[in-house]
Design brief:
With 199 residues, the chain is an alpha/beta fold. The protein has a four-stranded parallel β-sheet, with helices on both faces. Helix 5 crosses helix 6. The longest helix is centred in the last third of the chain and has 16 residues. The mean pLDDT is 91.
Length: 199
């Protein structure tokens, strides 16, 4: 409901959602269907796309193999919040994606951190592994032509990066460590400022 409300009571053309147990994605479609059923909106439904880590992608594998139910997999990914190898609602996810003309994408481990960094650098949002998966999967879907570049897209970011900060250890810009005193803070700030030439 918030998606439609924040878009001025309209559906986006595309929604990209992470999938773990499969609860979220079909419920997005259910909400959209309910808004159409009561006459609140009469627009075409969004194409709903699934994002999973390559180390745990039973739903995307089922989409690619044209299976009715996902085959269980053993999770092996840094995106812990979506590392569910046997999604309870996998059948409903597949049905929702197929009924809306959506697609799926799986993201390699090294690209999860890239997705986290891309979102932080461009939008100032720090997400955890599932968000990195969703951002990078969206990029892949656009590059593959499954999502046209000129159509509206909503990306579901479902968790804060502070929950799993270890995902970024050794990657990206490193934090500045300072002591507790004001002098330590001022020294750190001074060392980060560009040198000003006196002329």
């Amino acid at each position: 409901f918030e998606i439609a409300e924040q878009l001025g009571w309209a559906f986006p053309r595309h929604v990209v959602s992470p999938v773990a147990g499969g609860t979220l994605l079909p419920r997005i479609l259910k909400g959209f269907d309910e808004m159409r059923l009561i006459g609140l909106l009469d627009h075409d439904l969004a194409a709903i796309h699934v994002a999973q880590a390559a180390g745990c992608s039973p739903v995307v594998n089922a989409l690619e193999a044209d299976l009715e139910f996902p085959e269980p997999v053993k999770p092996k990914t840094i995106a812990k919040s979506i590392a569910i190898g046997n999604p309870a609602d996998g059948f409903q996810v597949l049905r929702a994606v197929r009924s809306t003309g959506g697609a799926g994408s799986k993201v390699e481990e090294e690209d999860i951190a890239r997705g986290i960094q891309l979102l932080a650098e461009t939008e100032g949002i720090f997400t955890e592994g599932a968000g990195g998966v969703t951002v990078w999967a969206t990029k892949q879907l656009i590059e593959r032509g499954a999502i046209p570049r000129d159509e509206s897209i909503v990306i579901c970011i479902t968790g804060n990066g502070y929950k799993t900060i270890e995902v970024l250890n050794g990657k990206g810009v490193q934090p500045i460590h300072i002591g507790r005193s004001l002098a330590d803070f001022e020294k750190a700030v001074a060392s980060e400022l560009p040198a000003v030439s006196s002329s």
